[in-house]
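Worked example 3. Consider a protein that binds glutathione.
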Amino acid sequence: MLIFRQLFDPQSSTYTYLLGDTRSREAVLIDTVFEQARRDAALVAELELRLRWTLETHVHADHVTGASILKRQFGSAIALAQNSGATGADRYLAQGDTIEFGMRHLQVRATPGHTNGCLTYVLDDESMAFTGDCLLIRGSGRTDFQHGDPHALYRSVHTQILTLPQNCLLYPAHDYRGLTVTSVAEERRFNPRLGGEIGEADFAGYMDNLGLPHPKQIDVAVPANLNCGRRDDAEVSITAPTWAALTYTFAGIWEIQPNVLEENLARVVVVDVREADEFDGALGHIVGARLVPLGTLVEKAETLPKDKPLVIACRSGARSAQATVLLGKAGFDKVANLSGGMLRWRAQRYAVDGGTE
Ligand SMILES: N[C@@H](CCC(=O)N[C@@H](CS)C(=O)NCC(=O)O)C(=O)O
Ligand SMILES: [Fe+2]
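Given these inputs, the predicted complex is written out as structure tokens:
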């Protein structure tokens, strides 16, 4: 069985794909985005996967890859095309290579044209293929920089992609209209640049007249990606909070586990966002916690300290998760949600004021 997720970066309209083998839990990510590495890492952790590889379909011009950050976190190996000109990868790929994850694998096809180092990854049973910026949904990658060549792209599409089974699903690296997936049969019939009877010269004529502005990030992205996403400038924006060992969730919330809160109780302010009767009720409350019911949190926010970390608690961890969002908007940057709320805190037998056994 296969675990499959399609993830989206709205800034660059990039799709990142997660593929995992259910049995061994080994996984690969295709085309990660630097700014989304934390999100991707959270999903890998929540699905209890072991990230073996981060794969690039090419050296991207519009965003920096998250490959190096993910390698630091998971020890995943970085792979991209031999022809990409990139340094610092763990493996350089060429036509016919395979990337294994558990009992599954991806086959590597060289599909140059958008860049000279573009690859398409085809799943072992040919049910899906990841075409990068070679074939886009009803479109194609541009061919006007990074050694792009419309003739090469035309041949790549016709010999390596449209020859796959008709019902093979095709997943691109980008879509600028929110379209998510297509198939070989569809693109053979309906691709306005490459389908039907359109010939190589027709395609080249089309591409030579696209007239697109260069990607906004190209001057940052290409040098960083030529070194597999290693960069100094943005390292700060991706570092985790240091005041305690927090967990970032795929839902987008920073959480603190009960045992970590217990160790840090003296250094944080616990804000309990339940109602007063719950605060004084059967579950009790954490020693020293301040009661600020969720409905009053925004108006009372200015009474909370900004220099100390805030840990937000409620019954189950749901209302407090929303409280962390509201406090984030109110300008608090050291805020964490107590994972599992008072229910888990009590289940793990940590101390409370009040409450019943
Ligand atoms: N406006 C985008 C441009 C993105 C762009 O040029 N994308 C490339 C892929 S890296 C492409 O081939 N686009 C094809 C198209 O827009 O039709 C940006 O600044 O990042
Ligand atoms: Fe691209």
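Take a moment to read the result before moving on. The mean pLDDT is 96. Residues 12, 60-62, 133, 139, 141-142, 174, 176, 212, 215-217 surround glutathione (ligand 1) (CB under 6 Å).
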